[in-house]
Amino acid sequence: MYYNSLIETIGNTPLVKLNSVNQGIKGTLLVKVEYFNPGHSIKDRIAVKMIEDAEKQGKLKPGGTIIEGTSGNTGMGLALVAIARGYKCIFTLSDKQSQEKIDILRAMGVEVIVCPTNVAPDDPRSYYSVAKKLTNEIPNSFYPNQYDNTSNLDAHYESTGPEIWDQTEGKVTHLVAGVGTGGTICGAAKYLKEQNSNVISVGIDSYGSIFKKYKETGNFDENEIYPYLTEGIGEDILPKNVDFDLIDTFIKVTDKDAAVMTRRLAREEGLFVGWSSGSAVHGALEYARGNLNEGDIMVIILPDHGTRYLAKVYNDNWMKDHGFLESMDFATAKDIIESKNGQGELFTIEKSMKVGEVITLLNKEGISQVPVIDNDNFVGSVTDTKLLHELIGNPDLKDKAVEEVMDDPLPFVALDNTLDVLSSLIDHDNQALLVRDQHKKIHIITQHDLLMAMAK
Ligand SMILES: Cc1ncc(COP(=O)(O)O)c(C=O)c1O
To answer: Largest Cα–Cα distance of the chain, in whole Å?
Structure first.
C-alpha cells in the first residue's frame, strides 16, 4: 500500500485522551493531534482544499504563483501542495513569527517576505497589504486568502468535522478550538451541529484580539486590540471564515497561561505541540471546570507541532525573560546546594555498620535518611522510618549489618536539573537525591531542601 503523493496523507489525524493535565475535571477530554499531517499542522487541510477549488474555478492555472499572508503553517501546507502540482510560492509573514517557521518555508523553496507586526492591517507595509499588492503585480498569481476564502471553512466541514463525529461515534458534546481565520472551529462546528444541534462550540481567543468582545457586544472595539505573542489565534480583523453564530462562546487565554500549558502538555502527556495548543487546552479546562458533566465528551483541536516553538515556549531562558517562568520553577540542583552554604555535610555509612549503631547515628545527627557505601561506591540507602518498621517486626536486626535491610541507592541528578524535575524524582521510594558538584563533591538534596527552595 502506498500513497501517490504526500497530499493523500493529509487528514485522518488521531484523537487522544488527556490523562494528566485534566486532573479533577469531569467528562472525557480528547485532543485531535493535527501535527500528524505531513506539514505538521491542521493547515494542510485547508491548503489542499483552497488550491483544488481555485483550480476548479479557473483561478489557478498550470505554472502559476501562489501568494499568501500566512503565520507559517498555512504556508507549509500550501508549499506541499504547490510542490505536488508544480506551482511557485511567495509568502508574506509578520515579524513576530518564529524564525523556525521562516526557515522551514525557505527550505521548501518558498520566497518569504517578512513584514512589520505593529502596523494596521490596511497599512501598505502590513503582511496583508504586501500579499495583495504582489497578487495585483504578478501575472497568473493566486491569493488563497485563508481569512476570507470560505474553502478554508469548507475543508473543515468536509474533513475535520466528520472525522470527529466518526471517531467519537457521534458522542462528542463539546468542540474547543483556537480562532484565527475561524475556519477550523466554524467548519467543524457547522458539521457537528448539523449532526447534533446540542454540540457546544467554544472558541479560544487571545488577549489583544477583538473576537470575544465582538461576539458578546456586536462592537468592533479597537481598544481590545494590542500586540500579543501567541501565534495563530486571535485577530484585529473580522475574517469571513468567522461565523459568530457557529461559535457559542469565547474564552480568552493569556500568552503566559498558554505557554505554561504548552510545556505541561509535552512533559505530562508527551504531546510536543505548538503554543496555540496550550491556549486551546488551558481555555478548554477553564470552560470544563464549570460546565462539563460526567459522560460529556469534549474534543480539543491541537493545531501544530512543537518544533516551531523550540526557541520560544520550550526555551527556559526565553520563558524567564518574558516572565512566564517563576524563579522558583527555575532553581536548579546547583542553586539548592549553594543556598545550603556548606551546611548539611553528606553523611554516609558503611554497609557493614550495625543497624543499632545506624539508628544512634541518625538520631545524633538529626537526619532521617543516609546513603550506604561500600568502599566509596553508593550501594544502598536507609531511612529512619524504614529501620523503625523493620525493628518492630524483628528486634534481633539491631545487631545485623545494615546491608541486610537497606533500600536501593539514592538516584544521582544533574547539577542543572530544575526544581520541577527534582520534585518529580522525590517520592515514597526515593526520599532524597544525590548530586555531584563541579568539584566532584557529593551533596544530598532532601524533600525538606526542595520545600525550602520553593518557599523562597
Ligand atoms: C498554530 C495555529 N493555531 C491555531 C490557528 C487557528 O485556526 P483557524 O485559522 O482555523 O481559526 C492557526 C491558524 O492560523 C494556527 O496557525
So the answer is: 94
